[in-house]
Design brief:
five-stranded mixed barrel, alpha+beta, single chain
Length: 239
């Protein structure tokens, strides 16, 4: 093959009128052309391979971009669903807590109403404000007011005019009560006195020995602010 090329170069040189001594230069030029052709072919192959790889990478990038957008949309939807579920759970929890608190308040109102109703039967009339007929939550404020009145009465010495039963007959007297429950009584004219008890809402009056009248009169005067305070001994029938 090499000899054939050399002969072709010699023939070419003779055809163009080159001296035989310059054939080696023609051979070198031909070799450089062959190398250039090889390089061009190699470059074309590299360019084709690079173009193919570029297209492949662009397709992969487009796929990844689409997948990323899909995942981002799915993540946003999941977050929104989670937030909505959490809000529903919070709403349910708050509603359940409110229902539970309402049930406990209703039970407390019923217990308070029962306790105050029992207490009212052991106190002088007017010690507590009128109790509501029911124990609903709407009446809870009135029940609390009655409880506050009972607490004030528990530490108070009170004088009021009541109608009690004396020897089976009604009689209006001044009642000196301790804690609103029991105490002593003094007739309105101050001539008689005795002990006072409350049974199931009834004010019961019993007479005491007349020697106790002055002490009861003075105790009533002290409670009304008409006499200076001092220690008094009252009948054993008192509290």
């Amino acid at each position: 093959m090499r000899r054939a090329l050399q002969r072709a170069a010699v023939i070419g040189a003779l055809a163009v009128g080159l001296p035989a001594g310059e054939l080696s230069l023609a051979e070198r030029a031909l070799a450089q052309l062959r190398i250039a052709d090889q390089q061009r072919a190699e470059l074309a192959r590299e360019r084709a391979a690079w173009q193919s790889e570029r297209q492949r990478l662009e397709a992969m990038l487009a796929t990844l971009t689409a997948e990323n957008e899909r995942l981002a949309a799915a993540l946003t939807e999941a977050r929104q669903a989670h937030a909505a579920a959490l809000a529903r759970a919070v709403d349910r929890s708050a509603a359940e807590q409110l229902d539970d608190a309402e049930r406990r308040l209703q039970a407390a109102a019923a217990q308070l109403h029962a306790a105050l109703s029992t207490l009212a039967g052991r106190l002088l009339p007017g010690t507590l404000p009128p109790l509501p007929a029911s124990a609903s939550l709407a009446d809870l404020e009135r029940l609390l007011e009655a409880l506050a009145a009972a607490e004030r009465a528990a530490s108070a010495l009170r004088v009021c005019v009541v109608v009690g039963e004396r020897a089976g007959q009604p009689e209006a007297v001044k009642a000196l009560s301790v804690s609103g429950a029991a105490g002593w009584w003094l007739s309105l004219d101050g001539t008689r006195a005795g002990c006072l008890r409350i049974r199931e809402g009834r004010v019961l009056l019993t007479d005491c020995d007349p020697e106790w009248y002055p002490a009861i009169r003075e105790a009533v005067a002290q409670a009304e602010g008409r006499a200076p305070a001092r220690v008094l001994l009252l009948p054993d029938g008192g509290p």
